[in-house]
Amino acid sequence: ATAQDGSAPDARPIPRFVSDNGRHALLVDGAPFLVLGGQVHNSSNYPAPLEQVWPAIEALGANTVSVSIAWEQIEPIEDEFDFSFVDHLLEQAREHDKRLILLWFATWKNNGPNYAPRWVKLDNDRFPRVVRQDGTVLNSLSPHAEATLQADRKAFAALMAHLRDNDAQRTVILVQPQNEPGTYGGVRDFSPLAQQVFEGPVPEALLSHLGKSPGTWREVFGDDADETFHAWHIAHYIDQVAQAGKAEYPLPMYINAALRGPFNPGQPGQYASGGPTDNMLDVYKAAAKNIDLLAPDIYMPEYVSYTTVLERYARPDNALFVAETGNAPEYARYLFATLGHNGIGWVPFGMDYTPYGNYPLGVKRTTPETIAPFSLAFAQVNQGMREFAKAASEGRLRGVSEQPGVPEQHVKLNDRWNATIAYGLPHFWFQGAVPGNPEPIGGALIAELGPDEFLVTGVHARVTIHPADQGVALIYDRVEEGRYVDGEWEFQRNWNGDQTDYGLNFSDAVQLLRVTLATYRTT
Ligand code: N0T
Questions:
Q1: Strands (E), 279-337
Q2: Are residues 342 and 486 part of one domain?
Q3: Which of 309, 358, 365 to probe ligand 1 with, by most ligand atoms within 8 A of CB?
Q4: Helices 146-166/225-248 angle, 10° precision
Q5: Ligand 1 atom closest to Cα of 256?
Q6: For the chain, which has fewer Cβ within 10 Å, the N-terminal or C-terminal residue?
Q7: Residue range 404-423: average pLDDT?
Q8: Is the sign of the CA dihedral 384, 390, 391, 395 positive or negative?
Q9: Distance of alpha carbon 445 from alpha carbon 330, whole angstroms
């Protein structure tokens, strides 16, 4: 058989990100895809630790693994490239039937150039660092140095060219140029070169994006001038790196953010100044046209903070993708709220069995027990992943995560139906106040398949559906349990009686329901 475009039968389309009218989709193998991922620890990017990656990723049931590719590893000596680890990783990912996200640790890896080769990070004259106003030097490279930009671009372009020539399988679906860019300990570069640029005019592209009038950075942005200036130049720098990479091989690319607190952000420099924090998203959108989306790294387990971050990054001009999140058990439920914002993916961090833990951001040591709640959440979504992905891309997906002290949540499904998600109830008849789960572990996900048809799953939650109209009551037409296999619904049984009389109850069992609703008149 020949593919529709006349190419060879096994030629798969290049993964693509599409954004239209405020709706977003990551297309993998030609259709919307949800990244149900696991990110490995930073230094698991060698063949030996990779052995401790796969068992954890299998236990997690992830469809994608995010792995660092260090500049020091692919260009240890200037102009001498070594892609042996990349090749090894591609081969192993295919053997394990996983897709990959490659994380380019180069000019910025959490503010610093520690993953840059020694010929870069040890040569401050050729590759200068950020200088603070008091003249002290920070371990963060300046975004104003042309030599650094050209060296990073060249290496990244070589990596992307190598992928183009060695990944017809499209094992790699996303690329993250840099990691949590920005500068800690200072708001921007005050070197003479940077200062000269700072005293010049704000670029027209930024002015027009923000609807502002021309002037110097200080005139246009006042007290926010230093941070905005740094953000613009970092974003523009990364954009040029991405552009060089995409010229070789146009995979979708994103930048991840080290967040500032959503309510008490503090001062730039206390958080990574110049990164894609919530206050700089518009600046990044204006500066980085080759970047498909800006992704939060969420290490805030508290419900209101977490969901506020989701709201701030899920925008008509930005698809929500949680590039990293903590791997402590209380985070597992946030998969559901993330997808409920029509997210394209969610990736807990530190999902390997190497002897390291990033506690207090995550667990002290990743074990099968710590992975279990994440693997349950992934299993629920996996059975209908392509259907949920399609629904997300069309704005038809609702999802919630349990909030401590709020045992019931209400969700509008469409004009005809609403849902209540209740936590901590037995599966049978129950009278009294809804208790909530002893720990906040519940969540639910509901995709609208048609006006009266929904795909429903969840964990440790009861889903009850109500007609929006007065004078009618719900009657289930069908509540089919099953799963999708190669896009076809595989029916297992019809739920009725005790299984539906008290709502649709989800526990830690892997269950997906295709529900067809009807009403009868009560008056
Ligand atoms: C993340 C990870 C890794 C509430 C931390 C988070 C990863 C990087 N950084 O394990 O280093 O490569 O992207 C920074 C969180 C700052 C502290 C937040 C306190």
A1: 293-298, 321-325
A2: no
A3: 358
A4: 40
A5: 13
A6: N
A7: 98
A8: positive
A9: 17
Judgement on whether residues 127 and 173 belong to the same structural domain of the protein: yes
pLDDT one-digit tens code per residue, 243-271: 999 999 999 999 999 999 999 999 999 99
How much of the chain, in percent, has pLDDT values that exceed 90?
Answer: 98
Strand 99-109 and strand 172-179: the pairing is: parallel
pLDDT, tens digit, 9 for 90 and up, residues 90-103: 999 999 999 999 99
ipTM for the whole complex = 0.95
Question: What domain count does the chain have?
Answer: 2
Looking at the fold, whether 353 and 502 belong to one and the same domain comes out as no
> Is 365 contained in some domain?
yes
Nearby residues of 521 by Cβ (< 8 Å), 6 or more positions away: 471, 472
Q: Which residues line ligand 1 (CB under 6 A)?
A: 42, 110, 179-180, 258, 297, 299, 324, 349, 358, 361
Band of pLDDT at residue 5, cut at 50, 70 and 90: low
State the residue range of the domain holding 461.
Answer: 401-521
What is the pLDDT confidence band of residue 285, given thresholds at 50, 70 and 90? Answer: very high
Burial 510-519 (b: 16+ CB within 10 A, else e): bbbbbbebeb
* 477 and 371 fall within a common domain: no
Please give the structure tokens belonging to residue 456: 């429903």
- The sign of the torsion formed by the CA atoms of 195, 285, 292, 358 equals positive
Enter the tokens of residue 366.
């990743």
Residue 143 has which token pair?
A: 């975004």
Residue 390 located in a structural domain: no
Query: Which one, of 406, 408, 489, 407, lies nearest residue 447 by Cα?
Result: 489
Whether 366 and 408 map to the same domain: the answer is no
